[in-house]
Amino acid sequence: MSKALQITNLSKTYGNGFTALKGVSLSVEKGDFFALLGANGAGKSTMIGIISSLVNKTSGEVNIHGFDLDTQRSEAKAMIGLVPQEFNFNVFEPVEEILLNQAGYYGVGRSEAKVRAKQLLEQLELWDKRKNMASELSGGMKRRLMIARALIHRPQLLILDEPTAGVDIEIRRSMWDFLKKLNEAGITIILTTHYLEEAENLCRNIAIINKGDIVENTSMKALLSHLQTETFILDLKEPLDALPETDEFILRQIDASTLEVELNKDHSINRIFEVLNTHGIRVSSLRNKTNRLEELFIELVQQSNHDTTQEVSA
Amino acid sequence: MTLTDQMTALKTILIKEVLRFSRIWVQTILPPAITMALYFVIFGKLIGSAIDTSATDGYSYIDYIVPGLIMMSVITNSYSNVVSSFYSAKYQGHIQELLVSPTPNTIILIGFIGGGVIRGLMVGAIVTLVSLFFTDMDVQHPFLTVITLFLTSVLFATAGLINAVYAKSFDDISIVPVFVLTPLTYLGGVFYSIKLLSPFWQTMSLVNPVLYMVNGFRYGILGVSDISIYISLAIILIFIVILFSIAYFLLDKGVGIRS
Ligand SMILES: Nc1ncnc2c1ncn2[C@@H]1O[C@H](COP(=O)(O)OP(=O)(O)OP(=O)(O)O)[C@@H](O)[C@H]1O
Ligand SMILES: [Mg+2]
Predict the structure, then answer these.
(1) How much is the ipTM here?
(2) Among A17, A195, A209, B143, which residue's beta carbon has the most beta carbons within 10 A?
């Protein structure tokens, strides 16, 4: 069976000579919820641009639902819904008009488009704004309008480039629910995000791209199980004079009443409390130092940067 | 994309284009009507009445310049509609709405050009109505008149699109109209018959494509022309084919719109 997306040896060198993608390969199964992560400038939008025909590739192949982008571009395009990173509306066009136009470009007639537009605008809480010009929407509303626009032709593969940038927490949660429902209904979703909590919460599979190379491509579960240690912050009831001695985990004192504990995955968190108890140290609260995925992400990117430096110096 | 789908897409682009210039009619429809009314009053009535009809094939000056002025409004409006619409689509990024869709490039081209033609012909019709306040028009060859006007409109709409593809700033979309289009129309026999010129400048004028359009149109309305109507139509058609091919090539390569 064909994949939702199959990328082979994809490269992109921009007109100014900058190589943003260095022969990456990637495949996404139908029905997947896939995260594409990477630092600023890693090449995520470039890759998405090529998939959605907004950027010309330098070499390589892209196949969408079995349609080759070079030889069956029209069919391939019909499969994709794109939510780009940057707003790209005609800001003088009314919200509903934007959706009707986009539907028309996919061959969906106006009367059918009106029905779909109403449904999507209601789901994304934009129905009240349907007569407003796009320029009159807030940033978060514009993001939601881009999602509605990407769905109006009922694509099989939805690609979202940082859909929740600048969206408040409440709307972000409701967007997550919305995306989860779409995915449950069978739509493959690929998203990029800088909120790793978002990727952890939504996505089953993940690829990490760094400086135009894919440095990790695995399931979220497998990736998180790579984590060897986890770091906790403990707030203490009373100021501490001296650190208790232990070799089961690493203890660091941040200030008088804050401790940092680095715990190996093989150990139980209970041991922390047992040790602290014997020293009469009482804990008032405990939290993760960072999102676990975040630590891993930084680790992987640093590792890959280190590798390339070594290659260069070798 | 099936043919029916393509027609839906084309209809969508046309509706969008018409809505665009209608929303801003004060900038798009009203100015040419006012400018042309002024031309009719000043050149037609005031100055024109003092001009010897031997310079204008025996027609009163206003009758002679009306076809040229209608043609001039059609040219300017077809051109500027496409150049500003396509450039702002590029500038604001919403050209991407079309680029991600399966709408073929031919349909995108025809859609934008069609929008320019609709605006050009609409303004042409308004200017014609205005001209009827100053002169009677007795159209000699209605079919030729309409076909010349239509083809000219297509030609300049296409040229406007090519300009927009290359434009990198709002300045770039006014350079061509100011430095190329206006001189060509003014020197294209809108206000005079080239028979008034010395033989050298008569020959030079023949290089100017606008001359053929103005004269073809004038032939349609008045029945007189400096140029054969068939040559006029042939030249316009050749230009359309060349410019459309260039525009298609640019869009296909994604010049100025895809990195
Ligand atoms: N049109 C362009 N011309 C030249 N270089 C470009 C162009 N677009 C992007 N780049 C470069 O390509 C690299 C990758 O950019 P890209 O937009 O794909 O990154 P990204 O992973 O999406 O980053 P972000 O998280 O900031 O959105 C960057 O170094 C960028 O400067
Ligand atoms: Mg990006």
Answers:
(1) 0.89
(2) A209
